[in-house]
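Bumping with the actual sequence this time:
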Amino acid sequence: MLMAHPAVLANLIEQYETLRILHAEDGSPQVRRRMDDVAYTLCVTTGTRDIDTALIAARHQLPGARPQDDSLLTA
């Protein structure tokens, strides 16, 4: 399986988190649509099927992530 560059993953995580905050504040269809697009891209780049798993997988692929670090499993 191809692995996404860590910079791409970091950017996608940042976009998703920002959009999630905007959606919580605004709730506009445009923000939700963009958030869905970024979530889909994260799932594809990490080979996962849901956003929570994709975020965990992406974070574990970033530099400095430790294999035994489960701190990312809690929201």
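The tokens above came from a reply further down the thread. The radius of gyration is 13 Å.
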